[in-house]
Amino acid sequence: MLRTPKDKQTAFEFVSLESLVPQDHMLRKIDQYIDFSFILEKVRPLYCEDNGRPAIDPLVLFKMVFLGYFYGIRSERRLEQEIQTNVAYRWFLGLGLTDRVPDHSTISWNRRKRFKDTTIFQDIFDEIVLQAIQHRMVGGRVLISDSTHLKANANKHKYTREEVLQNTKSYIEELNEAVDQERKERGKKKLKPKEVVEEKKEIKRSTTDPESGYMVRDGKPEGFFYLDHRTVDLKYNVITDVYVTPGNVHDSLPYLDRLERQTQRFAFKVEAVTLDAGYLTTPICKKLKEKKIFAVIAHRRFHPTQGLFAKWKFHYDAQSDTYTCPNSQPLTYRTTDRHGYRHYASNPEVCKSCPMLAECTRSKNHRKVITRHVWEESKEWVRGNRLSPDGKKLYKKRKETIERSFADAKELHGLRYCRLRGLKNVTEQALMTAAVQNMKKIAMHLSKRE
Questions:
Q1: Number of H helices, E strands in the chain
Q2: pTM, whole model, 2 decimals?
């Protein structure tokens, strides 16, 4: 017999909100295993104790924010609507079926006013990492880092051209000392102090979001982007660091500072790191070797001048400090320039009659010059690590750790696009996305373990 329900929507039922949420619901696990009590202590100085209207419970406010990131709800207005009709969301917030949901404008007001110029979002992220450490889900021994691009909330056709100062290299003083010491040991005159000239470059500045950066990379979309620099721990793929920069900042620039922050904030004893090819710079290799950290960095492909021998065909002998060309002729040391490169040159009288001259150099004086950085040994050490059995195993972990972390953030939590404009707002989005990813990982792991 065919029957249709009638007037079910207007029927009164005596039910408990607790019974309407499935026992295996993710939010139940989050509520059970994640301790949110620290939020009240973090925000207490931002509220007045004895004046003004009663505020919305900060715990409810931040749980609303977490819900938006848990389920990739990009609009705060939409988030309010979803909470009104979803009993699991109401249960998570501690609201009854008839309780009024806080207005969406409350979240945006607190972001623009109360939480402006504070470290509350960084503090929340750090506290979740500390909870993961307490549950022994973070080893702090092997860290994997990379960056991904986030499309800025800006039109790539609306921009102005500006000249800005180049980023000052943090290692320049150390390099100058190394060059002076190198020239002194080799009997060369000390270079005259170079006048500090602030180099400028022309960039595209978005008129919609001026703090974003115009990114142009091979194999990447072109336009205004931000970069999310992220580090994960190998043990359970818990995210341990998040740092956002404009899209035109090179991956390697913030890396050493962020690594140092993790070792200080979480007392990590890092033994190994795995990085992409963008981090294969001499200063990074040198620092990691000094810290005795086993570094595995992907190979960066260099394209030599077409028709000429590649640099790897010239073999370096450390004992004699010379290079040998494919025709078995030596290239001896000449000088060290102020940029930290040693120059090795061939004998033009020998090269003049060499049958391989056309494939070796096109210089008019028939002299072949090879350069080698004063810190090149550290880069060769990293190359050896990459080719070792342990290095190959570590590098294969990237696809199931850091790359998986970025994929989940973009597909499940809405990190593919920037919700708001400005570096601070994008940093908030990246931190909160990483925080909820860690919350899910902690809750799922502990629930399985029990």
A1: 17, 13
A2: 0.89
